[in-house]
């Protein structure tokens, strides 16, 4: 049996490091570094777009709490198109 090294991808929202997406077998596991995203910590996703959608939804909630103090809303880009985590092919 051959083991493949685990791969991790940084998840960065509007310049803020919020966690990692770590390949865990056929899944991606979210590891929160920002306590505001801890509700997703340990969650497993089958596809990168599912993880991205969950983090993006959580970011909307997190930033909605700061609506009166925020200068602008966060800009979230597709994980496949930004420089933070490359597209992952899960078999």
Explain what this protein looks like in three dimensions:
This protein has 91 residues and is α+β, with helices and mostly antiparallel strands. Helices cover 19% and strands 25% of the residues. The protein has 1 helix and 4 strands. A 4-stranded antiparallel beta sheet has the order 1-2-3-4, with helices on one face.
The end-to-end span amounts to: 17 Å
Order of helices and strands: EEEEH
Number of helical regions = 1
Mean pLDDT across all amino acids: 74
Describe the strand arrangement of the main beta sheet, using strand numbers: 1-2-3-4
Indicate the overall shape: globular
Approximately how much helix is present in the residues?
10-25%
What class, by secondary structure content?
Answer: alpha+beta
Oligomeric state of shown chains: single chain
The major pleated sheet works out as: 4 strands, antiparallel
Number of strands: 4
Strand residue content: 25-35%
Poorly predicted runs of 5 or more residues: 67-91
Topology:
Blueprint: E1 8-13, E2 16-24, E3 27-32, E4 44-45, H1 48-64
Antiparallel strand pairs: 1-2, 2-3, 3-4
What labels describe this entry?
single chain; 91 residues; alpha+beta; 4-stranded antiparallel beta sheet; 4 strands; 25% strand; globular
Please summarize what this structure is.
The chain is an alpha+beta fold and 91 residues long. Helix content is 19%, strand content 25%.
């Amino acid at each position: 049996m051959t083991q493949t090294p685990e791969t991790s991808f940084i998840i960065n929202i509007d310049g803020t490091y919020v966690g990692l997406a770590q390949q865990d077998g056929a899944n991606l596991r979210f590891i929160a570094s920002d306590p505001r995203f801890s509700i997703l910590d340990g969650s497993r996703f089958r596809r990168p777009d599912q993880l991205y959608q969950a983090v993006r939804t959580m970011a909307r909630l997190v930033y909605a709490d700061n609506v009166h103090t925020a200068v602008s809303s966060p800009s979230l880009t597709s994980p496949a198109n930004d420089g933070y985590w490359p597209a992952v092919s899960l078999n």
